[in-house]
Design goal:
The chain is mainly alpha-helical. It has a domain of 88 residues. It has five helices and three strands. The longest helix has 27 residues. The radius of gyration is 18 Å and the shape is elongated.
């Protein structure tokens, strides 16, 4: 923002649209983020959500889970059609949880970024986020389940 400071003060730049990852959308197609930091963050999120391994085994309908510390990302599969957009609570709770985790972290990043920009700009400076792509078929892992939290944050509006 420092580079744009004179343009912001002069009114030549009146706002920004926050975009990310692929084509400005907050999605990663083809696979989940498999970095050690992302996997560790997901394990921490699961551990905070489920009190013990037995509760998690029951929720995920997976008796083979060993411990909360050994949780891995669910298997990635692109939906073959829009009809596969919905997930089954009985058999796909791990994917539902991962999508909720992804949405919460996507929104938290956008809010943190917008907060940092807001701290360096005047109140009239507009901050929009390219989110959540509701009108496009991006699949369930698009990180778009956090719209309520985004609306409550420092973002002035959303564009899709």
């Amino acid at each position: 923002m420092t580079t744009l400071d004179s343009d912001i003060r002069s009114g030549r730049v009146t706002g920004v649209i926050l975009q990310g990852l692929e084509n400005g959308q907050w999605i990663r197609s083809g696979a989940y983020d498999s970095s050690p930091a992302h996997r560790a963050s997901f394990r921490q999120w699961v551990t905070s959500r489920y009190s013990d391994i037995e509760t998690l085994k029951s929720a995920w309908n997976d008796p083979s889970l060993g411990s909360l510390e050994s949780i891995s990302l669910p298997d990635f599969a692109e939906p073959e059609s829009p009809q596969e957009l919905f997930l089954s609570i009985e058999t796909e709770q791990s994917k539902i949880d991962y999508n909720l985790f992804l949405s919460e972290h996507t929104v938290a990043f956008i809010v943190d970024l917008a907060t940092a920009i807001r701290a360096q700009t005047n109140p009239e400076f507009s901050i929009f986020a390219a989110y959540p792509n509701l009108l496009e078929h991006t699949g369930t892992a698009a990180g778009s389940w956090g719209i309520r939290e985004l609306q409550a944050g420092p973002v002035d509006g959303m564009v899709t």
